[in-house]
Amino acid sequence: MSMAQALNRALRDAMTADDSVVVFGEDVGALGGVFRITDGLTAEFGENRCFDTPLAEAGIVGVAIGMAMNGMRPVVEMQFDAFAYPAFEQVVSHVAKMRNRTRGRVTLPMVIRVPYAGGIGGVEHHCDSSEAYYAHTPGLQLVAPATASDAYALMRESIASPDPIVFLEPKKLYWSKEEVDLSAGFSSEIGKAVIRRAGTDATLIAYGPSVPVALEAADVAAQEGRSLQVVDVRSIVPFDDETVCAAVASTGRAVVIAEAAGFASVASEIVARVTERCFHSLAAPIRRVTGFDIPFPPPKLEKFQLPGVDRILDAVDDLQWGEG
Description:
Elements: H1 3-17, E1 21-25, H2 41-45, E2 50-52, H3 57-69, E3 73-77, H4 88-95, H5 98-101, E4 111-116, H6 131-135, E5 141-143, H7 148-160, E6 165-170, E7 194-197, E8 202-206, H8 210-223, E9 228-232, E10 235-237, H9 241-251, E11 254-261, H10 266-278, E12 287-291, H11 302-305, H12 309-317
Parallel strand pairs: 1-2, 1-3, 3-4, 4-6, 5-6, 8-9, 8-11, 11-12
Antiparallel strand pairs: 5-10, 7-9
C-alpha cells in the first residue's frame, strides 16, 4: 500500500466510523484531490461529507473552526504547503487558542492536512517546509509520517483527537509503498518517536521526507564500516524527548536532518533539546543537515537544496571521530 492509499483508507475508515467526520478543501471532491488522497470519498459518502470549496484557505479553516465548535470533526486540505499561508491568521489566532481562551470549555477536534516539502520538482509555493511556523505556535499538535503505516495510524489518531492537529504529508513519499497491516486498527502514536534502524557509532534524527534519506545514508555508511542509528521523530509536537535522547546517549554522536531552512528551525530546536539533556553523553557537538536559508529553488536546482546522502555522511565524518 502506498502512503497515498493509506491516507485515503484512513479517511474512509474514519468517515465510516463517525458520521461527524467531514472532509473538504480545494478539488478534494469529485477530482479526489491533486494527489488523489480523497479519491472516491465523495462518491461513497456524498457531497455533504466530502466537498469542494472556493480557493480561499482562510475561509476553509474558518468554516472548519465553526464546525468543530459545534460537534463536527472537520478534516481540511490546504492542497500545497505554501497555499496555507492565507489561513495562518485563523490557525494562530483561533485554532491554536480556542481551548485556552475558553478555559477548556470549547475544543476544536479538527485536522489541517498540509502536503508539504520538496522532492517533486515543484516550483515556489509548492515545496515549502513550513513546520517551524506551526511548531512555534502553542496549542497545535504537529505530526509528519514517513511511512504508509504511520500515515494511516497517525491520521486516524489525529481525527479522533479532541485537539487541533496540523498533519504534514511528505509529497515525495505519497507513492512509496510498504506492507500495511490494518487488522489491528490504530494505536496511540502521537508523541512517540521510533527507532527505524539500530546503530552504535552515531544517531541520525529525521522526520517526514528526510527519514528515507537518513536510512539510505545509514546503508551507505554500513558499507564503509560505520554503524548509524536512525530515529524517526514522527511527532514534532509533542516531541518525544525520552526516545530521542536515549538514542543519542547510546551513541554519543548525532546528526539532525530536515529539508527546511536551518536557521530558527525544528532542527535547531532538536539540537538544543538533545544538547541540554545529553550534554555529558556527547562525544562531539550535534550537527545539522538542512535546506539552505534561501527561498525554494527552481526544479533543476532542487537536488542541491535538499539534504542528500553525501551531505549527511560529510556531517557524520565531522563528528570528531577519535576524540572524546
